[in-house]
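Need residues for this backbone.
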C-alpha cells in the first residue's frame, strides 16, 4: 500500500512563483495514495488558477473565509477537522509572518489556527527575503511550536538571484509529508487491538450484534503501525480493509475474540480493547433455523467472558486500555462511569465517549472522548477518528514503560 493511502492532506497554496509547482505536489501526493483538498490565498490565484487545482485534486478549491455557499458545503472548521495534515506549499514570507503572529483574516490562516493536525510549510521566496532577520526569527518561532519546515532549497531563482529560498522539489515534499506519519514512538513494541462488534449466533441464520463500525479500532491499528509497533488487530465482522503492516485476525463471536486475544497476548506491551463485545450470548445455538410459531420467543442468554479483564489479569500484563461507550454526557457523569470501569477491570486507561450523540462514536467518522486515568482525565474534543487515533497512540506511547 502506498505510504499516504487514505490520508487527507489539505494543501495550502500562497502567492509566489513556486505556486506553479503546487500542481505537481498534488500529483506526487496522489501517487502515494493521498486524498488532497486545496486552499488558495488570493495572491496564489494570480500565479495558478483554482480551476487547474480543482481539476488535478478532484475536489472543489477553497478560497474564501466568508463565503456562505462554501461554508454550507464544507465550512472552515469542518475543513480544519477533515485534514490529517496541513501542508502549505509554497509558503510565502507574508504567510509565514501571519502564521507566526496567529492571524486568521483569510481562509488558510484561519484553518491553520483552528486545526489540531500536524502542520508543515515549504517556504519559497527570494533569497534576500529568506535571509532577512524577520523571516529567520519567524521560522525559529514556528519550529519551536512544532511546525515542520520543509526546505527551502538553494539555487537559481526566478528573479535571477542565486541562494536559499527556492521551494523544495514536489517529490521531496511528498516524501517528507509521508514521513510525518511515521512517528516510531512504539518501535519494538507488540500491540494488540480489538475492534468492531461481535456476533452471537441464535441459529444458523440469525445473530445478536450491535452498531459498532470498527472505525476507531482500525484507525488505532493504523496509527500503532505507523508508530512502528508490531500490530495485531483482532476484528469482529466489519466492512473495512485491514490497514497496511497490520496482522488482522478475523473473528465472529466474543468467545473467538477472547481466544484469539489470549493466544496472542504473550510478549504484548500494549492491549487496546476498542471492540464492542456482546455482553451475552444465547445459551443454546439452535442447529436448525428457529421456526416462526408462537407469539413470543424467549432466548436464554449467558454472560460472555470479559476479554480486557482477562488480559489485565495476566501475570505479565501489558499496558491495558479499555473503551467505555456510555449513553451519558460529561455532565451526567461520563467520567464517573469510566473510572468505575478502570477500577473494576484493573485497567491503566479508559477512553470514554457518549454514544447517544449521533455525530460522534459508533458509526461516525468523528469522535470526542474523555481519556480517564486513575487520578486525572483529559477531554479531547470532536475530531476525525484517524487524527484522534494518532493523538491517543502518542499519549499512550508516552505512558508505556520502556
Ligand atoms: O463492560 P463494558 O462492556 O462497558 O466495557 C467496555 C470495555 O470492555 C471495552 O474496552 C470492551 O472492548 C471491553 N470488553 C471486553 N470483553 C467483554 C466486554 C467488554 O473486552 N466481554
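Answer:
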Amino acid at each position: 500500500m502506498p505510504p499516504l493511502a487514505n490520508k487527507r492532506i489539505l494543501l495550502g497554496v500562497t502567492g509566489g512563483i513556486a505556486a506553479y509547482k503546487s500542481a505537481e505536489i498534488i500529483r506526487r501526493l496522489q501517487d502515494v495514495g493521498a486524498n488532497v483538498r486545496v486552499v488558495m490565498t488570493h495572491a496564489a490565484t494570480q500565479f495558478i488558477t483554482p480551476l487547474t487545482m480543482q481539476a488535478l485534486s478532484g475536489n472543489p478549491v477553497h478560497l474564501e473565509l466568508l463565503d456562505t455557499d462554501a461554508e454550507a458545503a464544507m465550512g472552515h472548521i469542518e475543513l480544519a477537522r477533515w485534514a490529517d495534515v496541513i501542508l502549505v506549499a509554497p509558503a510565502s514570507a507574508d504567510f509565514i509572518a501571519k502564521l507566526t503572529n496567529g492571524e486568521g483574516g483569510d481562509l488558510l490562516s484561519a484553518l491553520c489556527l483552528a486545526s489540531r493536525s500536524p502542520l508543515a510549510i515549504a517556504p519559497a521566496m527570494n533569497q534576500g527575503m529568506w535571509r532577512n532577520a524577520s523571516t529567520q526569527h519567524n521560522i525559529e518561532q514556528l519550529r519551536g511550536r512544532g511546525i515542520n519546515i520543509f526546505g527551502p532549497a538553494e539555487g537559481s531563482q526566478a528573479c535571477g538571484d542565486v541562494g536559499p529560498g527556492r521551494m523544495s522539489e514536489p517529490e521531496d515534499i511528498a516524501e517528507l509529508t509521508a514521513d510525518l506519519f511515521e512517528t516510531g514512538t512504539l518501535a519494538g513494541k507488540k500491540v494488540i487491538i480489538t475492534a468492531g462488534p461481535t456476533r452471537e449466533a441464535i441459529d444458523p441464520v440469525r445473530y445478536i450484534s450491535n452498531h459498532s463500525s470498527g472505525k476507531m479500532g482500525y484507525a488505532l491499528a493504523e496509527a500503532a503501525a505507523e508508530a512502528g509497533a508490531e500490530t495485531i488487530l483482532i476484528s469482529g465482522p466489519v466492512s473495512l480493509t485491514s490497514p497496511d503492516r497490520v496482522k488482522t485476525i478475523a473473528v465472529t463471536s466474543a468467545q473467538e475474540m477472547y481466544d484469539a486475544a489470549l493466544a496472542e497476548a504473550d510478549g504484548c506491551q500494549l492491549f487496546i480493547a476498542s471492540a464492542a463485545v456482546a455482553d451475552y450470548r444465547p445459551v443454546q445455538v439452535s442447529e436448525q433455523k428457529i421456526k416462526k410459531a408462537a407469539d413470543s420467543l424467549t432466548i436464554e442468554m449467558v454472560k460472555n467472558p470479559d476479554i480486557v479483564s482477562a488480559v489485565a489479569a495476566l501475570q505479565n500484563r501489558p499496558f491495558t486500555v479499555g473503551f467505555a461507550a456510555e449513553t451519558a454526557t460529561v455532565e451526567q457523569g461520563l467520567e464517573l462511569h469510566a473510572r468505575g470501569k478502570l477500577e473494576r477491570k484493573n485497567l491503566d486507561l479508559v477512553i470514554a465517549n457518549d454514544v447517544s450523540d449521533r455525530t460522534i462514536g459508533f458509526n461516525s467518522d468523528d469522535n470526542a472522548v474523555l481519556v480517564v486515568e486513575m487520578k486525572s482525565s483529559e477531554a479531547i474534543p470532536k475530531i476525525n477518528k484517524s487524527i484522534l487515533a494518532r493523538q491517543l497512540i502518542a499519549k499512550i506511547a508516552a505512558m508505556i514503560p520502556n
